[in-house]
Amino acid sequence: MSEIAIATLLRQQGQTDKAAEGLMRWLGQHPKDDQAWATLADCMLELGDPAKAEVAFRRAIASNPGRLDLALPLAHALQSQGKHDLGLQVLQNAHAQAPEDIDVIMALGMALAQLNQAEAALAMFDAACQAQSNHSAAWAFKSLTHTRLRQYEAGLSAANHSLSLLSDNPQAWFARGRVLQKMGRWHESAQALETALEQHPEHQLALDLLASIRVTLAEEDRSESEAIEISRLNAMGHLAQHMRQYTSPSPLREVNFFRFKHDVEQAQYFLSQGVGSDAVKRLVALGGPILARDSDPTQALTLDDATLLALKQFWLQRQPVDLPALPGACLNPQLNWSDIEHRYLSQQPEIVVIDDFLSPQALAAFQRYNLWSPAWTSEYPDNKYLGGFSAKGYISELHLQLGRDLRAAMPGVFKDHRLMEFWGFKYDAHLGKGINVHADHAQVNLNFWVTPDEYNLDPASGGLRVYDAPAPADWSFDDYNHNADKIYAFLRQKNSGEQVVTYRCNRAVLFNSALFHETDTVNFADTYVDRRVNMTYLFGEQLGD
């Protein structure tokens, strides 16, 4: 039996690492075997090492330049490393060699969409639909791209055509759900997404969007328990992604330090409060010495099998935190909410600072939630902070009650704007920088802080900078939410002023979501309970996303 046949058998048995070892031995003696290099590259992708996969694919192509079939997996290996421009070049070269290859056309369209070149992506999907008119997937991606370009009627038409070709195409149902959501047809959108998930229960994007819609419709449909349930189900999907990322068979097994530090410190906090399952104790025992030895938050940690297993078991055993609705209001009843509403509506630009924002009971409940919650699943490696989102488990009855109370207290501000989403961000102690400058797609932002003031080492900082100039209505989401260079150039051009709101516990900032804003310098005490936490609610829609 050849080495390639043995490798195939080993992969089928789940022994991909041994298959790779055998192929490398073979290639040491047969360095021109393009198929062996290609199979080794596939193994490296399975092992979570796209860099080595890239090298192997390139060796295969160098040995046999006619291997056009390797262009797509090579592009995937490049994209998995964040080398999207290089991946695009590979696909463009493949398209030049085989302009009618439908798989290459589709892959090129998706790569262009990944790089936010929506018009160029649409041209590719158009070409795919013309080359193969019954290609349901091409029509589905055409629909998604029309939606990205805010061409909603065209997007709905393309999704419907995709479904007429293949009614059990979950991607087409997702595309239909996405465009209907953007058209404000929320219940029809939810029905389409539910159909997508019936056909493909692990369609994570469909579950993400459906969970978000259920949060938005919770008040209108009186379906808060359903919103909470699907949000937590979605969180489990993201937890599974986390575990695949950090516990794959890759020999590196790197974990972001700030992620590991938070979870070990949370386990230590659980023990200090008398909650000590075996999983908690194991992570503290193995992770505590690592934190004592390593302290650079900018680095990744390479963990051994035992510590990775302890981390995985800790993730699995944590339970969602239930915060029931309060019998009274979440908001501070001592404040004059009519006056606050008037001040917001009379300001240009619209921004108002609200001190003593929450009732004491609500503040204490949210503080407790942020210490105990397992919902901190989103990682932001650039600035080393964690996020929890309403569609991904960061939710409770109290969270939803706050949205209702805000609408009741200031109807002139929130009008008929639905609660779109809410989230929390949790920071390391003194990394200096939090969320980069951006605007949000909503109509109204509500941002508030819950960490006690005594943990802020610099009372003159730690808050929020809000700029006077709103994002232009024709900017794309990536422009106004991610492109810091373009934003700062725009603010200089507009000679924009700024309002610096310093950090205070239970201080809220209510402002027009289109205003550019960013986190001020962060310098908090360095223990688990001291971490700076801000919570944000978004109402209505304004800018495109």
Description:
By secondary structure, this protein is of the alpha+beta class. It is built from 23 helices and 12 strands. The chain has a 7-stranded antiparallel beta sheet. It has a 3-stranded antiparallel beta sheet with strand order 9-8-11, with no helix packed on it. Helix 1 runs parallel beside helix 3, helix 5 runs antiparallel to helix 6 and helix 11 crosses helix 13. The radius of gyration is 25 Å and the shape is globular. The model has no long low-confidence stretch (mean pLDDT 88).
Annotation field: number of helices:
23
Question: What do the pLDDT scores average to?
Answer: 88
**Quick one: overall form?**
globular
Q: List low-confidence stretches.
A: none
The termini sit apart by 54 Å
Number of E-type strands? 12
Structural class: alpha+beta
Q: Give the neighbour order of strands across the main sheet.
A: 3-10-7-12-6-5-4
Helix content: 40-55%
